[in-house]
C-alpha cells in the first residue's frame, strides 16, 4: 500500500481533481458571547508567562493584513503595543489608498507583522516585530521594531536602563559594531547614517540573547539594500564595561562572593544530598514524564460512504480550540487543524492535545504570509520552519499544507513538492471570518455541503465554536461521517466522484 508521504507527491500532480475551491476571505477575532456551543472552562496558558498572542487577519479586494499581536497581563503595555500596531496598519492603508487613487495599485497589497519573542528575565521579554509590506514590484519592503517589556510591572525596559550611555568610552561601541559588520562581510556601510543611529540609543532596535546584545537594522538603514535587514551581536564580554551592575548580575557577568551562611548551606547540601545514578535518573523521569507517542494514521474509508472533512485554520487558540475539541469529542469525530507555527510556539501543550485527541495536523505556514509575494528562500523558511516546529513540539510530521488565503503559484507548488507537502484548500467556506455570526455560519455550510467536500473554519472565532455543535448535529442527521483531509484524499485515489473542485493560481 502506498504510504501517505508518497501520496503527497501524487496529490500535487492531481491538482485538477483535488479539493481546491478558493474563497477570498477576511479573518478577524470574534469577541461574541457563547450561546449554543459546548462550553469548557479550559484556557491553555502560553509558554511565555504573562504573555499571549492573538492572530488578526483582514482581507479585501485591494489588500490583506496579517498581524501577530502580543497581549500581556499589563494594560499599560498592551496600550503601547496596540498604538504602534495601529499606526503601522493605518499608514499601510493610507499608502494603499494613495496607490489606488493614482491608478498605480496593480496587485493586492499585503501587510504582515510577525512577532519574535525572546525572554530576557522572569516575565520580561524582547518583542521583535518583523514588518513586511508588498505593494508590487519584485520584492516587498522589510523593517524591524523592538519593544522590551516587563509585564509584571507594566513598564517598558529601555536600552538606557541596561547600558551606561554616559560612559566616557561609550562611543567605542560604534567601533565594535563597525568591526562586527566587516567580519560579517558588510563593508558598504553608510557611515553617516550609522553614526546618527549609534549616537541616539533611544532609536536602537535591540534584543539580547545568551551571547550578547544584538542590534537590528532595516534594509538601507546603514548599508546597501542588497544586505537586507542586518542583525549584529556584540558579545557581552566586549561590552561589559558599559553594562550596568544590576544587569551584569542578571546575565551572570560578575562573580558574586558567597556569604559565610551561604557557603555553610552549600556544604550541608553536598554532604547530605547525595544521589546514586539510578536515583538521579528516576527523579528526572518523575520531573519530566515521557510524552505519549503521537502517531496519526488515517482510517481506510468505504467507497460508498457519505463523508465530509472539517478543517480549522490559524490556531491553536487558547480559549476557542478547547471548545472545538470538546464538540468534536462529543460526536466522536476527527478533523484537520491547519496550525500556524507562531501559535504552536506559544501554545505547545494545546497543540499536543489536539494531536492526542486523534486529529490531523497540517502546516499553515509560520506567519500567514501571502505566499505568492515571497521569494524561494522565504517560502522554504515559512514552510520548513513550521514543519520543524510541529515535529519538535508534537512529534509528528505534517503531510499537507494550506496556503494562507488559499492563494499559491507554481513556485509554491514546487517548494511544497520538495518538502513533501500536498497543497489542500477547501470546497465549502463557512465564512466565519466574515460574518462572525452563528446563523450565517450554519447557513453557509449547509448551502454547500455535499459528499466528499472539505469545510473551512477558523478555530480563533467564538462564533465558530458556538455554531459547530448545531452544524455537526445537522450534518450527522443527514448521514455524513466526519473524516480528516488525508482520509478523504486517500479515498479519492480510488473514487474521483468528490467535488466540485477548482483552483486559483496566481502566476
Put simply, the count of helices is: 18
Contiguous uncertain segments of 5+ residues: 1-37, 269-290, 494-507
CATH superfamily of the largest domain: Glycoside hydrolase/deacetylase
**Structural class category:** alpha/beta
Sheet with the most strands: spatial strand order: 1-2-3-4-5-6
Strand content: 15-25%
Distance between the termini: 35 Å
In CATH, the architecture of the largest domain is: Alpha-Beta Barrel
Main β sheet profile = 6 strands, mixed
Name of the CATH first level of the largest domain: Alpha Beta
CATH topology of the largest domain: TIM Barrel
Please indicate the count of domains: 3
In short:
The protein has 507 residues and is of the alpha/beta class. The chain has 18 helices and 17 strands.
Structure commentary:
The protein is α/β, with parallel strands linked by helices and 507 residues long. The chain folds into three domains: 4-42 and 293-492, TIM Barrel, CATH 3.20.20.370; 51-160, Fervidobacterium nodosum Rt17-B1 like (Heat Shock Protein 90, 2-Layer Sandwich), CATH 3.30.565; 172-242, Actin, Chain A, domain 4, CATH 3.90.640. 37% of the residues lie in helices and 20% in strands. The protein is built from 18 helices and 17 strands. The strands form four sheets. It has a six-stranded mixed beta sheet with strand order 1-2-3-4-5-6. Strands 10, 11, 12, 15, 16 and 17 form a six-stranded parallel beta sheet that branches. Strands 7-8-9 form a three-stranded antiparallel beta sheet. α13 packs across α14 (410-418) and α16 (438-448) runs parallel beside α17 (462-477). The chain is globular, with a radius of gyration of 26 Å.
Amino acid at each position: 500500500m502506498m504510504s501517505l508521504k508518497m501520496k503527497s507527491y501524487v496529490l500535487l500532480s492531481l491538482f485538477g481533481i483535488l479539493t481546491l475551491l478558493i474563497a477570498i476571505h477576511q479573518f478577524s477575532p470574534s469577541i461574541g458571547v457563547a450561546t449554543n456551543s459546548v462550553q469548557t472552562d479550559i484556557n491553555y496558558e502560553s509558554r511565555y508567562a504573562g504573555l499571549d498572542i492573538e492572530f488578526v487577519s483582514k482581507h479585501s479586494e485591494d489588500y490583506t493584513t496579517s498581524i501577530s499581536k502580543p497581549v500581556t497581563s499589563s494594560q499599560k503595555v498592551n496600550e503601547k503595543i496596540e498604538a504602534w500596531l495601529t499606526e503601522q496598519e493605518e499608514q499601510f492603508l493610507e499608502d494603499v489608498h494613495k496607490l489606488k487613487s493614482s491608478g498605480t495599485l496593480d496587485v493586492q497589497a499585503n501587510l504582515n507583522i510577525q512577532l519574535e519573542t525572546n525572554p530576557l528575565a522572569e516575565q520580561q521579554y524582547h518583542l521583535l516585530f518583523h514588518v513586511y509590506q508588498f505593494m508590487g514590484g519584485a520584492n516587498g519592503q522589510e523593517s524591524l521594531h523592538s519593544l522590551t517589556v516587563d509585564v509584571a510591572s507594566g513598564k517598558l525596559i529601555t536600552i538606557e536602563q541596561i547600558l551606561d550611555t554616559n560612559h566616557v568610552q561609550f562611543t567605542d561601541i560604534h567601533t565594535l559594531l563597525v568591526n562586527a559588520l566587516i567580519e560579517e562581510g558588510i563593508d558598504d556601510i553608510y557611515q553617516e547614517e550609522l553614526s546618527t543611529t549609534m549616537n541616539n540609543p533611544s532609536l536602537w532596535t535591540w534584543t539580547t540573547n545568551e551571547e550578547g546584545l544584538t542590534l537590528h537594522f532595516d534594509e538601507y538603514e546603514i548599508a546597501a539594500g542588497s544586505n537586507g535587514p542586518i542583525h549584529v551581536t556584540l558579545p557581552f564580554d566586549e561590552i561589559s564595561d558599559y553594562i550596568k551592575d544590576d544587569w551584569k548580575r542578571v546575565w551572570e557577568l560578575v562573580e558574586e562572593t558567597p556569604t559565610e551562611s551561604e557557603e555553610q548551606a552549600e556544604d550541608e547540601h553536598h554532604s547530605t544530598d547525595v544521589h546514586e545514578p539510578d536515583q538521579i535518573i528516576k527523579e528526572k523521569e518523575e520531573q519530566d514524564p515521557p510524552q505519549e507517542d503521537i502517531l496519526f494514521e488515517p482510517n481506510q474509508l468505504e467507497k460508498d460512504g457519505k463523508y465530509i472533512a472539517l478543517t480549522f485554520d490559524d490556531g491553536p487558540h487558547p480559549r476557542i480550540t478547547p471548545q472545538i475539541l470538546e464538540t468534536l469529542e462529543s460526536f466522536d469525530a476527527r478533523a484537520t487543524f491547519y496550525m500556524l507555527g507562531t501559535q504552536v510556539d506559544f501554545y505547545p501543550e494545546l497543540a499536543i492535545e489536539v494531536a492526542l485527541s486523534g486529529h490531523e495536523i497540517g502546516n499553515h505556514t509560520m506567519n500567514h504570509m501571502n505566499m505568492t509575494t515571497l521569494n524561494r528562500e522565504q517560502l522554504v523558511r515559512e514552510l520548513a520552519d513550521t514543519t520543524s516546529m510541529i515535529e519538535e513540539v508534537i512529534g509528528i510530521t505534517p503531510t499537507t499544507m494550506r496556503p494562507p488565503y488559499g492563494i499559491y503559484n507554481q513556485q509554491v507548488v514546487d517548494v511544497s513538492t520538495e518538502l513533501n507537502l500536498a497543497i489542500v484548500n477547501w470546497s465549502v467556506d463557512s465564512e466565519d471570518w466574515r460574518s462572525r455570526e452563528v446563523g450565517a455560519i450554519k447557513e453557509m455550510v449547509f448551502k454547500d455541503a455535499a459528499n466528499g467536500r472539505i469545510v473551512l473554519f477558523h478555530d480563533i472565532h467564538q462564533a465558530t465554536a458556538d455554531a459547530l455543535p448545531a452544524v455537526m448535529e445537522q450534518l450527522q442527521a443527514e448521514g455524513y461521517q466526519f473524516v480528516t483531509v488525508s482520509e478523504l484524499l486517500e479515498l479519492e485515489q480510488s473514487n474521483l466522484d468528490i467535488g466540485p473542485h477548482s483552483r486559483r493560481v496566481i502566476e
